[in-house]
Design a protein that fits this description.
About 40% of the residues lie in helices and about 10% in strands. By secondary structure, it is an alpha/beta fold. The protein has one domain: Divalent-metal-dependent TIM barrel enzymes (TIM Barrel, Alpha-Beta Barrel), CATH 3.20.20.150. It is globular.
Length: about 300
Amino acid sequence: MTGAVTRRTVLAAGAVGAASSAMAMGGSKGGQGSNAARFSLGYAPHEGSFASRGDLFEQIAYAADQGFTAWEDNEARSRPVAEQEKMAKAFAQRGMKMGVFVASMPKWAQSRPILGANDDADREAFLADIRTSIDVAKRLNATRMTVVTGFLDQKVPLDIQTARVIDVMRKAGDIVAPHGIAMVMEPLNTRTNHPGVYMQTIAQGFAVARGVNSPAVKILADLYHEQIQSGNLIPALEMCWSEVGYIQFGDNPGRNEPGTGEINYASIVRWLRARRYDGVIGMEHGNSVKGRAGEDRLIAAYRKIDSQGEGI
């Protein structure tokens, strides 16, 4: 990702088109109840997942009508306060949870921040973002905030950078812990999307989280990234589960809905259900088909893995 393009912009691009708020379906407005059975796990769409249904709030309502019980919004921190408050009200009316938002958005084009650098500038800016994100989390009733632990400094030994990342994450944990919020560090793949990032695997996130040793610092296990970087998904989750605070789905290759790639998400769902996981699962991916046909396919894909994962 480069320039002003965000991760959500990229993921939503295939779903956006000629959609407008006038295209929202009947039943997506107001306080009407769901017209579909609720999913058994907390799968969370995002703006763009149902772009043909209208604006942000019409998409939230439509998702609730289809049985989704959570929502995710990486860009929530940058939204006006009034819009954040309106989102929280919509979630409360529809019985939905807020998933993650990004607490400190990296400068992707500049390969910043570098949290393991010799100077403190990026670390101090990161901590400032964490402080100001607390109010955002409170407005949205969010208990998880995504953080990216920045980029590598090729001039500093990796072990030194790890120690510095642990130090800054411990400071950040001390800031958010009194508010009942946890930051979830997201490992990112370097082979397809994010060359040069510091944290690249769930196992590396585990090492940092154990070093910090705080309930306010956990791992975001994005299985799309992990599949590309390491694979072996269920064993990785098993070994690191005590430090996993959030899950995201996305198939590989393509980063679209489950069933479009190589990951057996029905098995992942069975594993999560066996662990009694009751948190949010971010649908951190695009739609493989544009328009309403793609939105229908998205819903069907989650119905399929949700039903195939039953039995535990």
